[in-house]
Specification:
The chain is mainly α. It contains three helices and no strands. The longest helix has 22 residues.
């Protein structure tokens, strides 16, 4: 008798379906705005990027906290801008680890 169900060993794999896709879409829209304003991946070449994106993230979070929900230049949520800055900082950390692995 054939088995009724198939088997897939994926219980320990990342669950991408858990992401809030509408929020991710707005982060991508902020990134697209930045790519048009500057150039694609320009953020990777910004001098002193770690400090500058930290400051930018806090500016966006502070604006949100005091009640300004949308960035006036882009019309996108300040939190989406802050998320971009945080993603840049994560990338910078990973890139530093990749270029300078601990021995």
């Amino acid at each position: 008798m054939p088995e009724m169900y198939g088997i897939k060993y994926d219980s320990e794999k990342p669950r991408w379906g858990l992401l809030p896709w509408e929020s991710v879409k707005e982060v991508v829209e902020v990134l697209t705005f930045g790519a048009k304003k500057y150039s694609p991946d320009n953020w990777k070449r910004v001098p002193d990027a770690r400090n500058r994106y930290f400051d930018a993230a806090l500016r966006h979070i502070t604006s949100w906290q005091i009640g300004e929900k949308m960035d006036p230049e882009t019309g996108k949520a300040h939190l989406s801008h802050a998320a971009c800055c945080l993603l840049f900082m994560i990338w910078l950390d990973k890139e530093e680890e990749r270029c300078n692995p601990k021995k």
